Amino acid sequence: MKETAKNQVTAPDSARGLGRTILALAIPALGALIAEPLFLLADMAIIGHLGINELAGAGLGTTVLQTAVGLMVFLAYSTTPAVARAIGAGNMGRAMAAGRDGIWLAVGLGIILALGGYFGAGALAGAMGATGEVREFAVDYIQYSTFGIPAMLLVLAATGVLRGMQDTKTPLYVAGIGFAANIALNFILVYPLGMSVAGAALGTSIAQWGMAAVYLWMLVPRIRAAGQSLAPHPRGVLSTGQVGSWLMLRTLSLRLALLATVWVATGQGALTLAAHQLVFTIFTFMAFALDALAIAAQALIGKELGAGNAGQVNRLTRTMSRWGVYFGLATGALLAIIAPFVGALFTTDESVRSATMVGVWILAASQPICGLVFVLDGVLIGAGDARYLAVAGMLNLLAYLPMLFIVTLFEHSGVSAVSWIWVAFGLGFMLARAATLSWRVRNDKWMLLGA
């Protein structure tokens, strides 16, 4: 079922109109991106008053959960461009079919992960070094969280569908209501009902299922209205999974880079690790803002490629690349100003503060590079260029690991260690990513026009 060309929405031609279109997608996307970490922060805030063992156990459990769900983010990244491309081509039926198949894939993977997590909770907690009460609480958190994993993945896929439809406001509203419900459920289950760590995990799972139900309530009628069956199409699920596997490999390369960085920081001593974690926390927060631009790029690029507008795709790519660099300059300037004071928000240790300050200054210098990287990553995801992203990710990792190895060859401590680690990651690794992404978009070969 195809829509006529007059019903297609294209990016405006004027610079001001294009800017408004980008912001209309990016700003709500930023709010929705922040919501998921807030779910975990709410768990930690409520559990923190129970005791040290409970907090430590829940911390290990959230690490397992974040790792598993983080690798599945491709469910959003693969459905967004598929839906956007079909809509750009005027084929709403194909768009809804792509969304339906992505949701079914999410549910299937969610069930597999849930079963594996539930029955493997003890082994996972033990592998992370947990013993005694900490291990028991970690197992409780993992097992009660597995109930919500299928819903979490369904939410990822459904969010991707709506982004592909150029709608980032609805995921913001759903995430906001879900976050409020999560806090209330967790408090009731942990304290009045006395479920401890298990109650916090169960409350989050229930909130995730509530969000999933809202998305299904919204999307099922649209799928039917587009003349599509609710049953999955094997070829569509396989296609989504194929793209997703490359995107998972891309995500895995990023995760390995982060883990290797933490491993090197740990080897440089407790002071270095503490300061590195503080700088990385700030990097993660800034990444949300940059990723909002990437999400706008995914949706807009996919739609314009589907519509066959190569000129508009080039214009969007240039515009959003500039935006990424400019935004990086702005956030970098802000970080440079607050660097001497930010450590005081987290610690009273003067040595950690000093090391954090220098690390944040290096992070500030890397922000324009990060802005370009995030935008171009979103552009190529929107173009469905998943295989290149996966291969480039592994090449970037291979380029980065020797940089880290060089850092380990010298004895560092405090300011020196944090400085060289963040020179390697914030400048070296990000420059490698910027080079491979910029090389890809140097011409039009990456563009595949049409549905």
Explain the overall architecture:
By secondary structure, this protein is mainly α. The protein has 2 domains: 1-232, no CATH class; 243-451, no CATH class. The protein has 15 helices and no strands. The chain has helices at residues 15-47, 52-71, 74-88, 92-119, 121-127, 132-146, 149-164, 169-190, 196-225, 234-267, 270-306, 310-342, 350-382, 386-408, 415-440. The radius of gyration is 22 Å and the shape is globular. Residues 1-10 have low confidence and may be disordered.
User: What is the typical, i.e. mean, pLDDT?
Assistant: 85
Low-confidence stretches: 1-10
Number of helices: 15
Tell me roughly what share of residues is in helical segments: over 70%
Following the backbone from N to C, one meets helices and strands in this order, namely HHHHHHHHHHHHHHH
What's the main sheet like?
none
Structural Rg: 22 Å
What global shape is seen? globular
Domain module count: 2
Number of strands: 0
- Give the distance, in angstroms, between the N- and C-terminal Cα atoms: 13 Å
What percentage of the residues does DSSP assign to strands (E)? under 5%
What class, by secondary structure content?
Answer: mainly alpha
Membrane topology: Multi-pass membrane protein
Keywords: Cell membrane, Membrane, Transmembrane, Transmembrane helix, Transport
GO molecular function: antiporter activity; xenobiotic transmembrane transporter activity
Main location: membrane
